[in-house]
């Protein structure tokens, strides 16, 4: 039984070569076609993924730079009012009066007056 299995494995490529002789040769793909496909893929990633993310990031940076004292913000799930703005951080005042310092980059949402934070979960 082992020898017949070995025989099948050694002869199978020969039969495959005979079967492929009847098929026409595959069309040659030029280098230009390859570059065109790569260009289309890059344009797709730029227009669908990268550019919208770049616009969202720019809009959020503009909002962070326009922060002022008294604004309500959400930073890493923590809601607070801006007490003081420093170069890279913001001091937030919580409802119970405690103060915490968070990075400006951690601010994910700036809430309009009287609006409650949206639950994204």
Describe the model.
This protein is α+β, with helices and mostly antiparallel strands and 121 residues long. It folds into two domains: 2-63, no CATH class; 68-111, SH3 type barrels (Roll). The protein has two helices and five strands. It has helices spanning 2-21, 31-65, and strands spanning 72-75, 78-85, 89-93, 99-103, 107-111. The protein has a five-stranded antiparallel sheet with strand order 4-3-2-1-5. β1 and β2 (78-85) form a beta hairpin. The protein is elongated. The two termini are 60 Å apart.
Jot down its keywords.
single chain; 121 residues; SH3 type barrels; 2 domains; 45% helix
Major sheet:
5 strands, antiparallel
Helicity, as a percent range: 40-55%
What's the overall average pLDDT, rounded?
82
The termini sit apart by: 60 Å
Structural category: alpha+beta
Assembly of the depicted chains: single chain
Number of domains: 2
Spans of at least 5 consecutive residues whose pLDDT stays below 50 are none
Q: What overall geometry do the principal axes of the alpha carbons give?
A: elongated
The percentage of residues in β strands lies in 15-25%
What is shown here, in short?
This protein is α+β, with helices and mostly antiparallel strands and about 120 residues long. The chain has two helices and five strands.
Could you give the topology of this structure?
Blueprint: H1 2-21, H2 31-65, E1 72-75, E2 78-85, E3 89-93, E4 99-103, E5 107-111
Antiparallel strand pairs: 1-2, 1-5, 2-3, 3-4
């Amino acid at each position: 039984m082992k020898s017949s299995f070995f025989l099948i494995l050694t002869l199978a490529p020969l039969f495959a070569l005979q079967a492929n002789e009847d098929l026409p040769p595959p069309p040659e793909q030029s280098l230009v076609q390859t570059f065109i496909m790569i260009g289309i893929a890059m344009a797709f990633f730029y227009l669908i993924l990268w550019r919208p993310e770049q616009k969202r990031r720019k809009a959020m940076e503009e909002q962070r730079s326009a922060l002022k004292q008294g604004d309500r913000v959400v930073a890493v799930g923590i809601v607070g009012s801006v007490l003081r703005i420093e170069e890279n951080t913001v001091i937030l005042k919580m409802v119970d009066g405690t103060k915490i310092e968070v990075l400006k980059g951690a601010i994910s949402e700036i809430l309009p007056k009287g609006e409650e934070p949206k639950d994204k979960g």
